[in-house]
């Protein structure tokens, strides 16, 4: 994006950087995603677009989790959760709690992580349109966490239960 048209608005530049960051996450190129998302965040902040900043912070959290940076993951997860609660947008809070749970796992706060993940799962289940792929991802995180806490039987039950849902949600070729 070095050759971005200088006549474009900061909002347009922010959107472009956000799209690059999102694509890099899909490609698991987290350092590049992080740089693009931080640029997008700066443009959106300059334009006073708090919801767009939220989306950047959420993906920045993902990058820091994948890069193993627990401190920055927690910092950005907290920003997303703060905005989600203030905005009172349930879907944003579901994702923010999921990201916070993952960040807390990374930092070693396993009890708090489990609470965040279970709350995200519950909120998702009670949402108008349940995100079933997200439910599967949350359940898998909870199962991994339970195994790390020595609660293997509980984790196995979760994995057994979601196997049916995964089969339903599978893409058919």
Give a summary of the structure in a few sentences.
It contains 8 helices and no strands.
Which terms summarize this structure?
mainly alpha; Serine Threonine Protein Phosphatase 5, Tetratricopeptide repeat; 173 residues
Number of E-type strands: 0
CATH architecture of one domain: Alpha Horseshoe
Q: Name the overall outline.
A: elongated
Helix fraction by DSSP (H/I, runs of at least 4): over 70%
What is the CATH topology assignment of one domain? Answer: Serine Threonine Protein Phosphatase 5, Tetratricopeptide repeat
CATH C-level class of one domain is Mainly Alpha
Termini separation: 36 Å
CATH homology superfamily of one domain: Tetratricopeptide repeat domain
* pLDDT averaged residue by residue: 94
How much is the radius of gyration in Å? 17 Å
Return the string of H and E elements: HHHHHHHH
Approximately how much beta-strand content do the residues carry?
A: under 5%
* Low-pLDDT residue intervals, each spanning 5 or more residues: none
The oligomeric state of the chains shown is single chain
Structural class: mainly alpha
Largest sheet: none
Q: Helix tally?
A: 8
């Amino acid at each position: 994006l070095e050759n971005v048209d200088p006549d474009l608005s900061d909002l347009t530049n922010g959107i472009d950087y956000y799209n690059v960051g999102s694509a890099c996450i899909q490609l698991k190129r987290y350092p590049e995603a992080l740089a693009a998302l931080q640029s997008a965040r700066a443009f959106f902040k300059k334009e006073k677009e708090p919801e767009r900043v939220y989306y950047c912070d959420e993906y920045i959290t993902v990058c820091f989790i994948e890069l193993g940076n627990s401190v920055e993951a927690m910092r950005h997860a907290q920003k997303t959760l703060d905005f989600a609660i203030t905005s009172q947008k349930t879907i944003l809070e579901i994702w923010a709690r999921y990201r916070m749970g993952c960040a807390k796992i990374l930092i070693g706060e396993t009890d708090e992580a489990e609470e965040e993940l279970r709350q995200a799962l519950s909120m998702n289940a009670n949402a108008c349109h349940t995100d079933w792929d997200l439910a599967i991802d949350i359940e898998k995180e909870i199962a991994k966490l339970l195994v790390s806490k020595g609660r293997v039987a509980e984790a196995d039950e979760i994995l057994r239960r979601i196997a049916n849902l995964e089969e339903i949600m599978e893409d058919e070729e």
